[in-house]
Amino acid sequence: MHFSYSSLLITLAMTLLMFFLLDILLKQKNKFFLFRTDFFIVLSLIILLRLALPFELPFTISLYISSIMNPVSIFLNFEIYNGFLISHLLGLIWFIGSLILFILYIQKLSLSKCIFKIINKASHKMHICDFMKVDKSHNYEIWKTDLINTPMVLGFKKVILMPNYTLKSNETHSILLHEMQHIKHYDIYIKHFVNILLIVYWWFIPIYWLSKNIDLVLEIRADDKATKRFSEREKLQYAAILIGMERKIQDSSKHQSLSTISNCFIREDKDILSYRIRFLTQTHFNKKTNIVFLCLIFLLPLLSNSIILEADFGNPKTEEKIISEENLNQGYILCHDDGSYSFILNDFSAKISNPNADEFINLPRLYDKGDIQR
After folding, report:
1. 152-155, Cβ contacts within 8 angstroms, sequence gap of 24 or more
2. Where do the DSSP E strands lie in 166-312?
3. Residue ranges of the alpha helices (H) in 4-137?
């Protein structure tokens, strides 16, 4: 695998296309008839995986598009000072921003760990079996506490946190079914993975919208699994409980910092709640997405990795075919596989942005692949 600005550019472009596809399908009401939670989960994971692997693969084909990539190459390889290029500056800014956000994220994790210890000491401990029949392997702990305002699963602990206010038995049953799905499907790991990508791609604005949609997909999947054996009437009751629980959340300032590292039953975002209600109240749909659609979505990573855009400055035309050692000793241009260029003179080497500039046009060229051309 090989990383270059070209591979990063195609990664961002393909990710953006897949993100818009996810957003359109999620928020178009009539699309629920064709696509269910399995499709949304698979598409979301593919988008995250594509962002995590912005590399050229062995089967990647280079497309030389000078009108787009030449200006990009010239800009990124522009020398600011003494061999320090614009690409170096942007990479440095990227690294510093990610480092700062990573430190803040570690601090937030440390804070959540401290809060978790406080909740542990100040909560009333129970188990799911105290409220409903459940398999032993899924008989998770329940901690009731005054320190939170909404049910949630926090961190990597298989513990369901419940706010300490009075709930009806059907409300408790629905909440526990939902939170169990988050634990069963390891949603907290997906959430942490998204947060890591947010740290890495902090400058890529669409990833923040993607993060919100991933939250929505995880909540919809938990609702779908929790109500799998429900009748239509029971699903409507479940939807009513979602709305009722939202009204019970009064003090939204209680540990808002936990929201980025937890899975919650209710979010403060009313748009997410409305999508969940709409998804639940669709009365006629297939339980699973058509296998053809799932196969097509699995092809997206292969298609998105199949091409890469490269700069193409062309080769200077000359009748001379053989380059003498003497000519090489007077300096030559080294053409790299990633589309960048270097000027070589004895032991001196420097990146250049435009090999067709007047001072370089008559110099011989040596390619990384080993063939010498003029």
Report:
1. 152/179, 152/258, 152/262, 152/263, 152/264, 152/265, 153/179, 153/182, 153/183, 153/187, 153/188, 153/262, 153/263, 154/112, 154/116, 154/258, 154/261, 154/262, 155/112, 155/113, 155/116, 155/188, 155/261, 155/262
2. 262-264, 307-310
3. 5-27, 37-52, 66-76, 86-121
Contact 303, 13 (CB under 8 A): no
Long-range contacts of 321-326 (CB under 8 A, 24+ apart): 321/374, 323/364, 323/372, 323/374
* Residue reference for tokens 């097509």: 296
Q: Alpha-carbon distance 150 to 164, whole Å? A: 9
| Low-confidence stretches of the chain (pLDDT beneath 50) | 251-253, 284-286, 317-321, 370-374
H or E segment to which residue 130 belongs: none
Nearest to 116 by CA among 86, 73, 145, 85: 145
Strands in the chain per DSSP E: 61-64, 79-81, 84-85, 124-127, 141-145, 152-154, 159-163, 262-264, 307-310, 332-335, 341-345, 348-352, 365-367, 372-373
CA distance 90 to 68: 19
In this structure, what DSSP letter does residue 39 have? H
For residue range 261-318, what is the model confidence (pLDDT) as tens digits?
Answer: 667 766 556 667 777 887 777 654 445 666 776 677 767 766 767 777 777 776 554 4
Q: Which residue has the tokens 């790991």?
A: 189
Q: What is the pLDDT of residues 30-67, one digit of tens each?
A: 555 556 777 888 888 888 988 998 887 777 777 777 78
Alpha carbon of 173 to those of 37, 142, 170, 238, 305: distances in Å? 22, 12, 5, 10, 45
